[in-house]
Write a structure and sequence with these properties.
Largest sheet: none
CATH class of the largest domain: Mainly Alpha
CATH architecture of the largest domain: Orthogonal Bundle
Structural class: mainly alpha
CATH topology of the largest domain: Multiheme cytochrome fold
Radius of gyration: 19 Å
Shape: elongated
Number of domains: 2
CATH superfamily of the largest domain: Di-heme elbow motif domain
Helix content: 55-70%
Order of helices and strands: HHHHHHH
Number of strands: 0
């Protein structure tokens, strides 16, 4: 009897998860296609801003918003996807999105990687003065507002 209840609960959980994944077009989030980010209506403004920005021709969302490497990229996508889905499903998301500290650090690292020559010219030798935050002053570069 316990096996039947456990099997039924497991099947129900899998069915709900599969339905949610298909309904939310979850497979699109496994790609590098920036249009996937615009699946949620709240992201449309950011997507449209990215298209018009200087980064629209040279970088996709994952280049700036996920860590480099396969594991880091998909771990970040899974974590963010879970929290975004929960917020949108429950209606507890702000009208104006704010980047979280963990994601800000990922974006900062991406800026520093792609623009390392400029960063080195500004900050000098590694280990010198404290780091200047790229995204503090250039927060709208990737998403024109």
């Amino acid at each position: 009897m316990v096996r039947i209840i456990f099997g039924g609960a497991l099947g129900l959980a899998f069915g709900i998860g599969a339905y949610g994944f298909i309904y939310a077009r979850g497979d699109s989030y496994l790609t590098d296609d920036p249009a996937a980010c615009a699946n949620c209506h709240i992201m449309r403004e950011y997507y449209d801003g990215w298209i018009k920005s200087s980064h629209g021709a040279v970088a996709v969302c994952n280049d700036c918003h996920t860590p480099s490497g396969w594991v880091g990229k998909y771990q970040s996508k899974a974590t963010n996807g879970f929290w975004h889905s929960l917020a949108f499903t429950t209606g507890r998301h702000p009208d104006s999105l704010r980047i979280k500290p963990r994601n800000r650090a990922v974006t900062e690292a991406a800026c520093r990687h792609c623009h390392q020559d400029i960063v080195a010219a500004i900050e000098g030798a590694p280990g010198g003065s404290p780091k200047i935050s790229c995204v503090r002053c250039h927060d709208s570069v990737g998403h024109l507002r």
